[in-house]
Design a protein that fits this description.
nine-stranded parallel beta sheet, two-stranded antiparallel sheet, binds flavin mononucleotide
Amino acid sequence: MDESLFSVFKIPLLGDTILAPMDGFSDMPFRSVCRELGSAVSYTEFVNAIDVVQRNRGVMQRVAKRVAFLPQERPVGFQLFDNDPDRLLEAALRLMERQPDFIDINLGCSDRSVSGRGAGAGLLRTPERIAEIFRKLTARLPVPVSAKMRLGWDEASLNYLEVAKIVEDNGGALLAVHARTKKQGYGGVADWQAIAEVCQAVSIPVVGNGDVRRVADIDRLKAATGCQAVMIGRAAVGNPWIFQRVERADVPREEVLRVIRLHLSRSLDFFGEYGLVLFRKHASRYLSSYLLEPELRQRLMIIERADDFIGLVEENLKE
Ligand SMILES: Cc1cc2nc3c(=O)[nH]c(=O)nc-3n(C[C@H](O)[C@H](O)[C@H](O)COP(=O)(O)O)c2cc1C
């Protein structure tokens, strides 16, 4: 019997919460921890299609790091961004040898270096190009193609229903909707009503995203919109237990220590010594809810040996 909550074409998804792709955060170590705690899908950090198609070995090594995943992370989607449909297609085709389960197209990045050149949220201004991207990729790729979008460029040009229909009509398999405009960036309030409208307008699965901060928000967002799953970004950093639907305050000290050790050891295995440096931003979030002396926090952020870091955390973490 298929016990999945929903499927993306033939990919069954076994849960209704998903870690959001986050540049600088959703690397293999963090994704795999979240996946083990209940995130139903792994989306990679976004990858520039230009980097994939150029034949520069150093650049390709960086790309390979961004799309590396553990087998237990499946289903895995590689997220790509670009403004050029043919280059996106070429990049996706090249990445097929790494066997992703789906390809996700970024229609939401608000960063000026991306949206300013018509990629990410910049594509929302050229819906005909979104149609071309989905037409071309769904015709040629052996895996489903999904989109992660915002509501529009700004409040004067909200075109989420048009974009959602375009993605669906051109073969898109799933839509994640971050319910903000590009102009809003990460501020203001996410418009959940817009997610509800998208759910009404399309028949492909919709994943709602934006302003999920606590466990209760997951079901609130689902009930308010009818979306199939909920995507969680910032609130999952330092709190992957949100995917288990456990409130952060209820996570026992031993479990916090277990996950810190696991996450850090994966980070070291994957990135080498630099893994500790990359782990620091996660560490500060894991530890943010504890009363620690400011000097101790500072020490933890500059410590150079992983064993010393863990020893100090174990000594000082009190319920
Ligand atoms: C540091 C950071 C990096 C992000 N990188 C990406 C990315 O690579 N691709 C993407 O589609 N969205 C990216 N986002 C947006 C998130 O996926 C998500 O849509 C947004 O943070 C709203 O969800 P939240 O309120 O749960 O954080 C990023 C967000 C943050 C904060």
